[in-house]
Amino acid sequence: MKNFHRSRSLKPTAKQVAHVAGVSLAAVSRAFTPGASLDVEKRKRILAVAEEIGYLSPARRTAEAISATTITLVAGDLLNPFYPFVLDTLAKQLQESERQLLVYALAANTDVDSVTEQILAARPSAIIVTSAHLTSSMARACRQHQIKVVLLNRIQRDIRINAVACDNFQGGRDAGRLLLERGYRKIALVGGVANTSTHVERVRGLRDVLAEAGGAIHAQAFGNFTYKGGYTAGKTLLSVPDAPDAIFCCNDIMALAVIDVAREFGLRIPEDLAVIGFDDIPMASWNSYGLTTIRQPVERMVMEALKIIDDPTIKPSDDGIITMLPGTLVTRSSA
Protein backbone atom coordinates (compact mmCIF):
# COMPACT_ATOMS: atom_id res chain seq x y z
CA MET A 1 0.00 0.00 0.00
CA LYS A 2 1.48 3.35 -1.02
CA ASN A 3 1.90 6.32 1.32
CA PHE A 4 -0.50 9.24 1.18
CA HIS A 5 0.01 12.64 2.78
CA ARG A 6 -3.41 14.19 3.43
CA SER A 7 -3.79 17.84 2.54
CA ARG A 8 -5.67 19.98 5.02
CA SER A 9 -7.24 22.06 2.27
CA LEU A 10 -8.24 19.36 -0.22
CA LYS A 11 -10.68 16.51 0.22
CA PRO A 12 -9.35 13.08 -0.75
CA THR A 13 -10.50 11.89 -4.16
CA ALA A 14 -11.32 8.51 -5.70
CA LYS A 15 -8.19 8.85 -7.83
CA GLN A 16 -6.06 9.14 -4.68
CA VAL A 17 -7.78 6.08 -3.16
CA ALA A 18 -6.95 4.13 -6.33
CA HIS A 19 -3.32 5.29 -6.21
CA VAL A 20 -2.78 4.33 -2.55
CA ALA A 21 -4.63 1.01 -2.87
CA GLY A 22 -2.85 0.15 -6.10
CA VAL A 23 -6.06 -0.42 -8.07
CA SER A 24 -7.88 1.15 -10.98
CA LEU A 25 -10.33 4.02 -10.64
CA ALA A 26 -13.06 1.71 -11.92
CA ALA A 27 -12.34 -0.69 -9.05
CA VAL A 28 -12.81 2.13 -6.53
CA SER A 29 -16.16 2.94 -8.10
CA ARG A 30 -17.25 -0.70 -7.93
CA ALA A 31 -16.15 -0.94 -4.27
CA PHE A 32 -18.70 1.70 -3.35
CA THR A 33 -21.47 0.34 -5.56
CA PRO A 34 -23.69 -2.24 -3.78
CA GLY A 35 -23.84 -5.50 -5.74
CA ALA A 36 -21.03 -4.56 -8.15
CA SER A 37 -18.64 -7.37 -9.16
CA LEU A 38 -15.32 -7.06 -7.31
CA ASP A 39 -12.89 -9.36 -5.53
CA VAL A 40 -13.72 -9.49 -1.81
CA GLU A 41 -10.16 -8.81 -0.64
CA LYS A 42 -9.72 -5.98 -3.12
CA ARG A 43 -12.97 -4.35 -1.90
CA LYS A 44 -11.76 -4.62 1.71
CA ARG A 45 -8.43 -3.01 0.77
CA ILE A 46 -10.11 -0.14 -1.06
CA LEU A 47 -12.55 0.55 1.80
CA ALA A 48 -9.70 0.43 4.34
CA VAL A 49 -7.72 2.98 2.34
CA ALA A 50 -10.78 5.21 1.94
CA GLU A 51 -11.32 5.10 5.70
CA GLU A 52 -7.67 5.84 6.43
CA ILE A 53 -7.39 8.90 4.19
CA GLY A 54 -10.91 10.17 4.89
CA TYR A 55 -12.45 9.65 1.48
CA LEU A 56 -16.24 9.79 1.15
CA SER A 57 -17.97 8.46 -1.95
CA PRO A 58 -20.37 10.81 -3.78
CA ALA A 59 -23.32 8.74 -2.53
CA ARG A 60 -22.02 8.96 1.06
CA ARG A 61 -21.45 12.73 0.77
CA THR A 62 -24.99 13.17 -0.55
CA ALA A 63 -26.43 11.03 2.25
CA GLU A 64 -24.54 12.99 4.90
CA ALA A 65 -25.63 16.31 3.40
CA ILE A 66 -29.26 15.14 3.48
CA SER A 67 -29.04 13.77 7.03
CA ALA A 68 -27.52 17.04 8.27
CA THR A 69 -30.74 18.84 7.33
CA THR A 70 -33.16 16.03 8.24
CA ILE A 71 -35.21 15.77 11.42
CA THR A 72 -36.91 12.48 12.22
CA LEU A 73 -40.40 12.42 13.76
CA VAL A 74 -41.45 9.23 15.56
CA ALA A 75 -45.21 9.02 16.12
CA GLY A 76 -47.38 6.20 17.40
CA ASP A 77 -50.95 7.48 17.12
CA LEU A 78 -51.55 9.08 13.74
CA LEU A 79 -55.18 7.92 13.84
CA ASN A 80 -55.76 10.60 16.48
CA PRO A 81 -56.44 13.82 14.48
CA PHE A 82 -54.28 15.81 16.90
CA TYR A 83 -51.04 14.22 15.68
CA PRO A 84 -51.50 14.78 11.93
CA PHE A 85 -52.04 18.43 12.92
CA VAL A 86 -48.70 18.34 14.79
CA LEU A 87 -47.08 16.66 11.78
CA ASP A 88 -48.42 19.31 9.40
CA THR A 89 -47.23 22.14 11.66
CA LEU A 90 -43.75 20.64 12.02
CA ALA A 91 -43.41 20.00 8.28
CA LYS A 92 -44.31 23.60 7.43
CA GLN A 93 -41.86 25.06 9.95
CA LEU A 94 -39.06 22.83 8.66
CA GLN A 95 -39.79 23.80 5.06
CA GLU A 96 -39.39 27.44 5.99
CA SER A 97 -35.84 26.70 7.17
CA GLU A 98 -35.13 24.45 4.15
CA ARG A 99 -34.97 21.28 6.24
CA GLN A 100 -36.53 17.90 5.64
CA LEU A 101 -38.78 15.67 7.72
CA LEU A 102 -38.58 11.89 7.93
CA VAL A 103 -41.56 10.22 9.64
CA TYR A 104 -41.69 6.84 11.37
CA ALA A 105 -45.28 5.83 12.18
CA LEU A 106 -45.25 3.10 14.79
CA ALA A 107 -47.81 0.30 14.88
CA ALA A 108 -50.17 0.15 17.84
CA ASN A 109 -48.70 -1.09 21.13
CA THR A 110 -45.07 -0.80 19.96
CA ASP A 111 -42.31 1.36 21.38
CA VAL A 112 -39.50 3.24 19.69
CA ASP A 113 -37.07 0.34 20.13
CA SER A 114 -38.72 -1.41 17.17
CA VAL A 115 -37.29 1.19 14.76
CA THR A 116 -34.10 2.18 16.60
CA GLU A 117 -31.73 0.65 14.05
CA GLN A 118 -33.56 2.23 11.11
CA ILE A 119 -33.57 5.65 12.76
CA LEU A 120 -29.89 5.59 13.67
CA ALA A 121 -28.91 4.28 10.23
CA ALA A 122 -30.55 7.33 8.64
CA ARG A 123 -28.27 9.58 10.77
CA PRO A 124 -30.81 12.38 11.33
CA SER A 125 -29.63 15.66 12.81
CA ALA A 126 -32.26 15.29 15.56
CA ILE A 127 -35.27 13.21 16.59
CA ILE A 128 -38.69 14.38 17.80
CA VAL A 129 -40.83 11.76 19.54
CA THR A 130 -44.56 12.27 20.00
CA SER A 131 -47.33 9.86 21.07
CA ALA A 132 -44.77 7.07 21.47
CA HIS A 133 -42.87 5.70 24.44
CA LEU A 134 -39.14 6.40 24.40
CA THR A 135 -37.26 3.65 26.23
CA SER A 136 -34.07 4.22 28.20
CA SER A 137 -32.13 2.04 25.73
CA MET A 138 -33.21 4.23 22.80
CA ALA A 139 -32.32 7.38 24.75
CA ARG A 140 -28.90 5.91 25.54
CA ALA A 141 -28.31 4.95 21.90
CA CYS A 142 -29.11 8.49 20.74
CA ARG A 143 -26.70 9.96 23.28
CA GLN A 144 -23.96 7.58 22.11
CA HIS A 145 -24.54 8.66 18.50
CA GLN A 146 -24.68 12.35 19.53
CA ILE A 147 -28.24 12.76 18.22
CA LYS A 148 -30.40 15.26 20.05
CA VAL A 149 -33.89 14.04 21.07
CA VAL A 150 -36.96 16.09 22.04
CA LEU A 151 -40.21 14.67 23.35
CA LEU A 152 -43.25 16.61 22.11
CA ASN A 153 -46.53 16.61 24.04
CA ARG A 154 -45.20 14.25 26.70
CA ILE A 155 -42.67 14.16 29.50
CA GLN A 156 -40.61 11.18 30.68
CA ARG A 157 -38.64 12.31 33.70
CA ASP A 158 -37.11 8.87 34.25
CA ILE A 159 -34.86 9.12 31.18
CA ARG A 160 -33.88 12.81 31.62
CA ILE A 161 -34.60 13.84 28.03
CA ASN A 162 -35.59 17.18 26.45
CA ALA A 163 -39.35 17.72 26.39
CA VAL A 164 -41.86 20.34 25.27
CA ALA A 165 -45.44 19.99 26.47
CA CYS A 166 -48.62 21.86 27.21
CA ASP A 167 -49.29 22.52 30.90
CA ASN A 168 -51.61 19.53 31.20
CA PHE A 169 -52.10 19.95 34.94
CA GLN A 170 -53.39 23.50 34.55
CA GLY A 171 -55.56 22.43 31.63
CA GLY A 172 -57.24 19.82 33.81
CA ARG A 173 -57.80 22.45 36.49
CA ASP A 174 -59.29 24.90 33.98
CA ALA A 175 -61.74 22.28 32.69
CA GLY A 176 -62.84 21.31 36.20
CA ARG A 177 -63.21 24.92 37.32
CA LEU A 178 -65.44 25.78 34.34
CA LEU A 179 -67.74 22.85 35.09
CA LEU A 180 -67.99 23.84 38.77
CA GLU A 181 -68.68 27.47 37.88
CA ARG A 182 -71.54 26.36 35.61
CA GLY A 183 -73.16 24.35 38.36
CA TYR A 184 -72.15 20.78 37.48
CA ARG A 185 -71.34 18.61 40.49
CA LYS A 186 -71.35 14.97 39.32
CA ILE A 187 -68.24 15.33 37.18
CA ALA A 188 -66.91 12.11 35.64
CA LEU A 189 -63.69 11.37 33.80
CA VAL A 190 -62.78 9.52 30.62
CA GLY A 191 -59.05 8.89 30.96
CA GLY A 192 -56.47 8.08 28.32
CA VAL A 193 -53.56 5.70 28.85
CA ALA A 194 -52.70 5.40 32.53
CA ASN A 195 -48.89 5.54 32.29
CA THR A 196 -48.63 8.62 30.05
CA SER A 197 -47.82 12.08 31.37
CA THR A 198 -50.71 13.59 29.40
CA HIS A 199 -53.23 11.38 31.20
CA VAL A 200 -51.62 11.66 34.63
CA GLU A 201 -51.29 15.45 34.65
CA ARG A 202 -54.74 16.22 33.19
CA VAL A 203 -56.41 13.92 35.71
CA ARG A 204 -54.33 15.37 38.54
CA GLY A 205 -55.45 18.87 37.57
CA LEU A 206 -59.13 17.89 37.51
CA ARG A 207 -58.89 16.02 40.82
CA ASP A 208 -57.04 18.95 42.41
CA VAL A 209 -59.64 21.59 41.56
CA LEU A 210 -62.54 19.33 42.56
CA ALA A 211 -60.87 18.65 45.93
CA GLU A 212 -60.53 22.37 46.54
CA ALA A 213 -64.32 22.62 46.14
CA GLY A 214 -64.86 19.74 48.55
CA GLY A 215 -65.65 17.22 45.84
CA ALA A 216 -64.10 14.35 43.94
CA ILE A 217 -64.32 12.63 40.56
CA HIS A 218 -67.83 11.15 40.40
CA ALA A 219 -66.89 8.15 38.24
CA GLN A 220 -64.21 7.27 35.71
CA ALA A 221 -63.43 4.97 32.80
CA PHE A 222 -60.49 4.63 30.42
CA GLY A 223 -60.80 5.33 26.71
CA ASN A 224 -57.13 4.87 25.69
CA PHE A 225 -57.16 8.18 23.76
CA THR A 226 -59.22 6.58 20.93
CA TYR A 227 -62.72 7.15 19.56
CA LYS A 228 -63.66 3.51 20.07
CA GLY A 229 -62.35 3.55 23.63
CA GLY A 230 -64.11 6.84 24.38
CA TYR A 231 -67.35 5.46 22.99
CA THR A 232 -67.16 2.39 25.23
CA ALA A 233 -66.20 4.50 28.25
CA GLY A 234 -69.09 6.87 27.58
CA LYS A 235 -71.57 3.99 27.49
CA THR A 236 -70.19 2.65 30.75
CA LEU A 237 -70.51 5.99 32.53
CA LEU A 238 -73.98 6.83 31.22
CA SER A 239 -75.56 3.39 31.71
CA VAL A 240 -75.70 3.54 35.51
CA PRO A 241 -78.60 4.98 37.59
CA ASP A 242 -76.40 7.66 39.17
CA ALA A 243 -75.01 8.94 35.88
CA PRO A 244 -72.79 12.05 35.75
CA ASP A 245 -74.01 15.46 34.69
CA ALA A 246 -70.62 16.35 33.18
CA ILE A 247 -67.68 14.44 31.72
CA PHE A 248 -64.12 15.64 31.24
CA CYS A 249 -62.27 13.66 28.57
CA CYS A 250 -58.49 13.58 28.39
CA ASN A 251 -58.54 14.29 24.66
CA ASP A 252 -60.97 15.56 22.04
CA ILE A 253 -61.49 12.40 20.03
CA MET A 254 -62.83 10.63 23.14
CA ALA A 255 -65.00 13.67 23.93
CA LEU A 256 -66.59 13.50 20.47
CA ALA A 257 -67.35 9.82 21.08
CA VAL A 258 -68.97 10.65 24.43
CA ILE A 259 -71.20 13.26 22.76
CA ASP A 260 -72.28 10.67 20.19
CA VAL A 261 -73.14 8.21 22.98
CA ALA A 262 -75.05 10.88 24.91
CA ARG A 263 -77.20 11.62 21.88
CA GLU A 264 -77.96 7.92 21.47
CA PHE A 265 -79.13 7.97 25.09
CA GLY A 266 -81.43 10.88 24.26
CA LEU A 267 -79.45 13.34 26.38
CA ARG A 268 -79.23 17.03 25.52
CA ILE A 269 -75.80 18.69 25.37
CA PRO A 270 -75.12 20.60 27.62
CA GLU A 271 -78.50 20.71 29.46
CA ASP A 272 -78.40 17.05 30.53
CA LEU A 273 -74.70 16.42 30.09
CA ALA A 274 -71.73 18.75 29.68
CA VAL A 275 -68.64 17.48 27.87
CA ILE A 276 -65.15 18.97 27.78
CA GLY A 277 -62.17 17.67 25.80
CA PHE A 278 -58.47 18.48 25.45
CA ASP A 279 -56.40 19.41 22.33
CA ASP A 280 -58.79 21.49 20.15
CA ILE A 281 -58.56 19.33 17.04
CA PRO A 282 -60.29 20.77 13.93
CA MET A 283 -63.44 18.64 14.45
CA ALA A 284 -63.96 20.19 17.89
CA SER A 285 -65.21 23.40 16.25
CA TRP A 286 -67.68 21.67 13.93
CA ASN A 287 -71.25 22.85 14.54
CA SER A 288 -72.38 19.28 15.09
CA TYR A 289 -70.16 19.06 18.19
CA GLY A 290 -69.28 22.58 19.37
CA LEU A 291 -66.82 21.03 21.81
CA THR A 292 -65.52 23.03 24.74
CA THR A 293 -61.87 22.09 25.10
CA ILE A 294 -58.35 23.02 26.14
CA ARG A 295 -56.40 24.19 23.10
CA GLN A 296 -52.80 23.06 22.96
CA PRO A 297 -50.36 25.69 21.60
CA VAL A 298 -49.11 23.40 18.85
CA GLU A 299 -47.24 26.03 16.82
CA ARG A 300 -45.38 27.29 19.89
CA MET A 301 -44.66 23.74 21.02
CA VAL A 302 -43.09 22.92 17.66
CA MET A 303 -41.12 26.19 17.68
CA GLU A 304 -39.76 25.46 21.16
CA ALA A 305 -38.78 21.93 20.13
CA LEU A 306 -36.85 23.29 17.15
CA LYS A 307 -35.19 25.90 19.37
CA ILE A 308 -33.86 23.13 21.58
CA ILE A 309 -32.62 21.25 18.51
CA ASP A 310 -30.92 24.35 17.07
CA ASP A 311 -29.36 25.55 20.35
CA PRO A 312 -25.66 24.55 20.24
CA THR A 313 -25.33 24.97 24.02
CA ILE A 314 -27.76 22.07 24.56
CA LYS A 315 -25.85 18.84 23.99
CA PRO A 316 -27.26 15.35 23.29
CA SER A 317 -25.41 14.15 26.39
CA ASP A 318 -27.13 16.69 28.68
CA ASP A 319 -29.80 15.64 31.16
CA GLY A 320 -32.39 17.53 29.13
CA ILE A 321 -34.66 20.50 29.76
CA ILE A 322 -38.44 20.58 30.10
CA THR A 323 -40.46 23.42 28.58
CA MET A 324 -44.09 23.82 29.67
CA LEU A 325 -46.47 26.07 27.72
CA PRO A 326 -49.94 27.20 28.82
CA GLY A 327 -53.03 25.89 27.05
CA THR A 328 -56.15 27.96 26.36
CA LEU A 329 -59.68 27.18 27.49
CA VAL A 330 -61.96 27.40 24.42
CA THR A 331 -65.63 27.55 25.36
CA ARG A 332 -68.24 26.32 22.90
CA SER A 333 -71.73 24.86 23.23
CA SER A 334 -70.90 21.49 24.84
CA ALA A 335 -70.27 22.97 28.32
Overview features:
6-stranded parallel beta sheet; Rossmann fold; alpha/beta; 3 domains; single chain; 434 Repressor (Amino-terminal Domain)
**Sheet of most strands:** 6 strands, parallel
Shape: elongated
What's the arrangement of strands in the largest beta sheet? 2-1-3-4-5-11
Distance between the termini: 79 Å
User: Which blocks of ≥5 consecutive residues have pLDDT under 50?
Assistant: none
Full CATH superfamily name of the largest domain: Response regulator
In terms of structural class, how would the helical and strand content be classed? alpha/beta
**Average pLDDT, to the nearest integer?**
89
CATH architecture of the largest domain, please? 3-Layer(aba) Sandwich
According to DSSP, the number of beta strands is 12
Order of helices and strands: HHHHEHEHEHEEHEHEHEHEEHEE
Number of DSSP helices?
12
CATH class of the largest domain: Alpha Beta
For the CA atoms, what is the radius of gyration? 26 Å
Strand-residue fraction?
Answer: 15-25%
Overall number of structural domains? 3
Explain how this protein is built.
The chain is built from twelve helices and twelve strands. The mean pLDDT is about 90. The chain has a six-stranded parallel beta sheet, sandwiched between helices. A four-stranded parallel beta sheet has the order 7-6-8-9, sandwiched between helices. Helix 5 packs across helix 12 (about 300-310). The radius of gyration is 26 Å and the shape is elongated. The protein starts with 13 loop residues before the first helix and ends in a 5-residue tail after the last strand. It is of the alpha/beta class. The protein folds into three domains: about 15-55, 434 Repressor (Amino-terminal Domain), CATH 1.10.260; about 65-165 and about 300-325, Response regulator (Rossmann fold, 3-Layer(aba) Sandwich), CATH 3.40.50; about 170-295, 3-Layer(aba) Sandwich (Rossmann fold), CATH 3.40.50.2300.
